[in-house]
């Protein structure tokens, strides 16, 4: 397999005779399967061979690779065959990929995970409850569990002995050392944990209110959205037939036409697209699943991307990364990065960047088209009309009709 990337007989002999030689052909095949370019594969194979020689110099076997030792070696490396690839990210990344490959084939043992705090059984059951009964995502469960562990560590493992004043004091102490965003998340996570304790009979009903809310007036600000002209420029920034342009165009169409969240797009599967009925199945927060109509332009954009979409293992996710290894987005952060990058390319100057601004844009556009608030709430999958009413402030024409003059003007 090395012949795919190297033609010189001397180089092939050097690679195969080195300490890593018996694994390099398989590593080369793995790099090809994952879609790495020939130039990248050559650099990573050289790094793997370099790593093997460093390991041998320290008298250890390939199964005992220490990347820390290799990184320290690169600081003063004078190996004759390093070809200039000493202290750079290609060498480090190639060595890391090689270690992962050795782990996958059973040569090396995976690194043991380090746990910061021992997790009490109470928190373990809380995590299971969040997953089963609340449909929370893995990221949400991790956040809530972290705050629950800190609370239990501070007040003890027996919630029946907690006093409301102690919980409130703990929260206020932590909040005094955090910013607004962190305080709001802490409020949500602790209240969720206290409600779980109520369900289990460890806490009195209603006492989750001992955790005060951050002083922020709901629906006080205006919706963050783009104008029709900015949306046109954003879509036009994806013109082209490359895989990246087709993918980004399909993502933006889903966000701005259907008001999906970034996480919804990242988790979208091939089976969720029902071509015959022209609908899209979306499962968002709390596993709340709905079927949305698939507009023609959105369906065309998705179909155009699927025609050239890279093949990737057993994953059935619709949208993949454009660089090797081709794998799905882990979270909605990658989708937001796509939008931010395209907004920059389109020259759209706005303080609001990311995928969520397109969700706001979709809502305000439906409102301008005369769609009732309850219908907009169904598309956006809001649980209450109060949340959807937030967008009513964007309809300035309607507000002018119902606005009352100030008393001094009468």
Short description:
With about 400 residues, the protein is an all-alpha fold.
Which features would summarize this protein structure in a list?
mainly alpha; DNA polymerase, domain 1; 3 domains; 18 helices
Plain-language structure description:
- The chain is an all-alpha fold and 410 residues long.
- It folds into three domains: 2-104, no CATH class; 121-210, DNA polymerase, domain 1 (Orthogonal Bundle), CATH 1.10.150; 228-399, Intergrase catalytic core (hpI Integrase, Chain A).
- Helix content is 53%, strand content 3%.
- It has helices spanning 9-17, 21-33, 38-57, 67-75, 89-104, 121-133, 138-155, 164-175, 180-199, 228-236, 243-258, 262-267, 296-308, 333-345, 356-368, 373-380, 385-388, 396-402; strands spanning 273-274, 279-283, 289-293.
- It has a three-stranded antiparallel sheet with strand order 1-2-3, with no helix packed on it.
- Helix 1 packs across helix 2 (21-33), helix 11 runs antiparallel to helix 13 (296-308) and helix 11 (243-258) packs across helix 15 (356-368).
- The longest helix is centred in the N-terminal third of the chain and has 20 residues, at 38-57.
- It starts with 8 loop residues before the first helix and ends in an 8-residue tail after the last helix.
């Amino acid at each position: 397999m090395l012949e795919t990337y190297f033609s010189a007989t001397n180089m092939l002999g050097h690679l195969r005779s080195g300490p890593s030689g018996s694994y390099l052909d398989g590593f080369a095949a793995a790099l090809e399967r994952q879609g790495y370019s020939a130039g990248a594969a050559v650099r990573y194979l050289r790094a793997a061979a370099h790593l093997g020689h460093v390991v041998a110099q320290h008298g250890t076997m390939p199964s005992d690779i220490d990347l820390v030792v290799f990184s320290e070696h690169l600081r003063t490396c004078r190996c004759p065959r390093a070809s200039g690839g000493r202290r750079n990210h290609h060498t480090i990344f190639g060595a890391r990929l090689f270690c992962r490959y050795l782990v996958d084939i059973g040569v090396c043992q995976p690194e043991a995970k380090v746990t910061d705090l021992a997790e009490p059984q109470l928190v373990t059951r809380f995590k299971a409850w969040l997953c089963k009964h609340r449909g929370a995502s893995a990221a949400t469960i991790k956040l809530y569990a972290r705050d629950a562990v800190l609370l239990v560590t501070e007040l003890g493992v027996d919630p029946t002995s907690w006093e409301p004043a102690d919980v409130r004091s703990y929260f206020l102490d932590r909040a005094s050392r955090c910013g607004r965003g962190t305080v709001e998340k802490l409020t949500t996570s602790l209240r969720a944990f206290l409600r779980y304790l109520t369900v289990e009979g460890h806490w009195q009903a209603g006492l989750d209110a001992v955790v005060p809310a951050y002083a922020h007036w709901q629906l006080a600000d205006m919706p963050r959205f783009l104008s029709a002209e900015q949306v046109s420029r954003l879509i036009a920034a994806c013109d082209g037939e490359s895989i990246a342009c087709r993918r980004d165009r399909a993502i933006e169409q889903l966000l701005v036409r259907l008001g999906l969240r970034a996480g919804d797009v990242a988790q979208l599967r091939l089976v969720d697209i029902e071509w015959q009925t022209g609908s899209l199945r979306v499962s968002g927060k709390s596993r709340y699943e709905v079927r949305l109509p698939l507009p023609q332009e959105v369906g065309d954009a998705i179909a155009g991307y699927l025609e050239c979409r890279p093949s990737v293992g057993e994953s059935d996710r619709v949208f993949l990364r454009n660089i090797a290894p081709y794998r799905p987005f882990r979270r909605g952060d990658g989708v937001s990065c796509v939008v931010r990058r395209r907004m920059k390319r389109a020259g759209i100057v706005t303080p609001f960047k990311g995928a969520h601004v397109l969700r706001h844009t979709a809502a305000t556009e439906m409102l301008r088209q005369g769609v009732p608030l309850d219908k907009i709430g169904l598309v956006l999958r809001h649980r209450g009309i109060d949340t959807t009413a937030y967008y009513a402030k964007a309809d300035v024409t309607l507000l002018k009709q119902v606005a009352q003059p100030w008393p001094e003007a009468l």
